[in-house]
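Hi X.,

You mentioned you wanted examples for the new student's onboarding notes, showing what a folding record looks like when two proteins sit in one file. Here is a clean example. The first protein comes first, with its sequence line followed by its structure tokens.
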Amino acid sequence: MDEAGPVEMIQAMLRAVQGLKLYPAQHPNLQRQVNDWLLCLERMLHGRPQVVLGAHQQTLFCDDRLFTEPLAAAENLLAVLSGRMIASIVFTPGVSARELADFLVLLTGPGSPEQLLEGCRRAGLRHIEARLVEDEEERDSAQAADKVYQQAIDVTDSIFNDVRMGKIPQSGAAIAAVRAMVETTLTEPHALLALSLIKDYDDYTFRHSVNVAVIALAVGRASGLDETRLRVLGFGALLHDLGKLRIDIAIINKPGRLTSREFERIKDHPLEGAEILRQMEDVPSAAIAIALGHHLGYDRSGYPASVRSVPMPDYVHMVAIADAYDAMTTLRPYQQAMTPRGAMARLRESAGSLYHPQLLENFAADLGSYPVGSLVRLNSNQIGLVSRVGFAEDESVRLKILLDADGRELASPESLDLVGADMQRIVGEVNPLSRGIQVADYLP
């Protein structure tokens, strides 16, 4: 894409926004500015399905261009969008000068953000779609969780790089990251769980470790662990796979079935990881046990065989559940990703053999009938995404309604709370792939 295109587009849009403060909507000067904006959009839309303008973490973006460098037009336009609680605006081919002018009037006029969306609908703006940010409380919570999650990613990346280079990592940064994760887990139990569903396949190795820590903390919290024990659990979970860094990366990332020799090498990683942790400072013995035993299985039928008779704390079983849950809900070259509800059903099939039955049931009860990230169909035929659970005394979920009863995507997802008997409105789970929905696009 032409690098100048996004810059020209936002500059032209801002001139039109500012022009509306000086001229009425039908004034020739304003029409000229709108036409200039339209020309920029048409050049960007040539041969493309859409152009997206929006804000991400208080930074303006236009398609793939993120305006992190100082640019007055970007800063001013960001202020306009933020003031109207707009997360993004999608322009599609066929957009007209009339639609742009009508949208400008709505964008700069009075009324709530919701009234802006209703005005767009009434004006018949078929080629312009505005989407609003989350409500303020949820947005603040999501941003806080995202900061904690990213801190854990950065720390894990650094530790893994040290191991690859043959160094013994320092434990201080990991301890601090886990402390923040535990605090978030105790105050907003499902905020980090939502982030664990946003996968990055290029960074799978250390992102998987962070996700396992997030999920293990959810298992631990559901099982009644206090803050001190949660920190031990989170630390061990975050570093449970350190030993894999001593295995040939071609084996770790092999898309097909492993040979017997390759699998025997993989089975060494718990012993390798425990050895690394023993050399680090301030590592609790339980964390070493987690690295050593997370593939043993509840019935001790797993590996390494040499430690099958060694007593293991419940932390090990919690991480085993988390490890499997994250793997099942992740798309890999050799498997399709399962839905959260499907993954829990699969885990339950192995309760009492691979997984600790009571700890698994604790986790299942905490996730609820429809865990965060589940796509569900209502008896009205609407389809919604579970974005929050357990906020009321009875069983409860908060949905983002994505598709209306006729299967049409909503211009902006609508929030719907179901509590107690209202949960019966959910008639079943929907596979996101069947509807072409990327769940991660709608999570915080």
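Then the second protein repeats the pattern, sequence line and then tokens:
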Amino acid sequence: MRRTHGTVAVAVSTALLLAGCGGGSSDQSDDGRTRIDFAIHVANPQDQEPAFAAVVDAFEAQNPDIDVNLIGKEQSEHIRSIKMQSQSGNLPDMFWMLQASASELNDAGALLDLSDFLNANPDIASSLRPNMVEAFEDDSVQYGLPYQPLVTGLFYNLALFEENGLEVPETFDDLVAASEVFSAKGITTIAQGAKDPYSVWAFLTMLSRFGYFEKIEAILAGDEAFDNSDFVRFYEKIDLLRETGSFPQNVTTQSYFQAVESFTGGQAAMLDSGTWDVKKIEDSPVGQDVGFWWGPTFSDGVGEQNISSVVPSAPIVVNAQVAESEAKLAAIEKFLAFYYGPDGIQLMVDNQVPAMTDVDVSVDETEHPVFASVMEQVSSPAYTSQPAQPDLVVSEAVANAMYDSIYGVINGTYDPQQAAVVVQKAIDNER
């Protein structure tokens, strides 16, 4: 979810970072093993991040001379802790961090350049999806590598489509036609919850089909405007879905979590979500009937239409002071090689986390049918991923305006032109 994967803005003072010196953890655990202190953004990694925990456990079993000491804290507390540690020069050896703050840490010289690791592991470097690496590059410095991929789109209830004589849509016109049928029968087409305004992942990908990444840099620089004809046309599509009754009648007062419940309870044909909901969907009454879709193509879209969304979430970064310890540096490089290697990737897939590399993985379709559908789409050569989630390449204020604009049209608060202007005003306010 976006709030989990990168929207909390925490400013890290470059001056304070530069003031820090020394620090870092000791090289060895009490039992003599080389210790890696790894700070993560959840309080209980075993329960809250089982895929990551499984990789750590397997790595330690394979490398009994290395101790990965997980330091788990709830995300906001974790970020505050990293900020405080950066001020004193006592950052953990490795840690999860929001991209904007990681970039500031890199600017302050606090992070290890991982280019040498990638150069020493060409198989990993070539197997990682390009956008997973490019997201954390700054000039020639590789200041981070992806923690996990962020995969979002539309889950669909195939049984509902078949019961109503419909095929799963491919184009926007198909989606509108299906929506008209569902609406006439009192069935919600797309489960959404405006009380959690960030929950518009599939619509953000649709925005990419109207030239978002071709325009956004010029828009932020003031050379173009967000309220351009292409983006207004994108909002017009959302408005048409509203007019055909695609969204829940209580979308304004419904939360994202209630939207999930309506889908898993069989009251909605589609759900705008991501892979974090796979287990919940598979365990629900509709679990055997659910597939995954990247969303519609548009005949009047801009540029490539077969766009998927397999994008990097927050990065894993390494404290630059690790380079002062040969043993610790070697242990961390060994961990990274395992994490991004075929064994680590397969362990994550076994825990329903999509692969961020192009290595072959196996999925038990009988036990995990929904995740198998996701992986089929992730690996489809017919689609190319957008480079990042559109809201993650702008400031938090602009991202919030984007959410407001989309839900504003869904709720009928804004017309398409007004919605685009809302975002442009947020951009103007930052200049």
